[in-house]
Amino acid sequence: MIEKLIDLQKNSYSPYSHYAVSAIAVMKDGVEFNGVNVENASFGATICAERSAILSAITAGYTKGDFKELYVMVSSGKIGTPCFECRQVITELMNQDTPIHCLSKTGEEKIYTVKELCPYPFGEDDLV
Asked: Would residue 50 show up in a list of annotated catalytic residues for this protein?
């Protein structure tokens, strides 16, 4: 998976931050969806790699609970974790025990469950 993530970072469009991020959402049936960050001069229009991969799966017809795991890698050489916008999408569409693999290019890995990354989620119960 490390090589796939490193190769995928080549597709990142990050001319402003020079911080390429790649993500691969793996579904329970083994299908993989790739995502990279795509920046924009209007920074609010930027999309993260994690959301790109997750939303591609939803677009393809997968639904909440179909996700087996998510892999994330940043270009800095460190282990990065999903931002809070991505965490909101992750908590909405993934089960609490879904593993999130955060990897560095050198093979270091930290694995978190959704519940560990998002201990106090905002969800549909908060809307009533």
From this structure: yes
Render pLDDT for 26-74 as a digit per residue (tens, 0 to 9). 999 999 999 999 999 998 889 999 999 999 999 999 999 999 999 999 9
* pTM, two decimal places: 0.94
d(CA 11, CA 27): 22
DSSP label at residue 49:
H
The arrangement of strands across the sheet holding 21-27 comes to 32-36, 21-27, 67-74, 99-103, 109-113
Q: Point out the catalytic residue in the list 50, 108, 116, 124.
A: 50
The continuous run of DSSP H or E covering 68 comes out as strand 67-74
Count of CB atoms situated within 10 Å of the CB of 125: 7
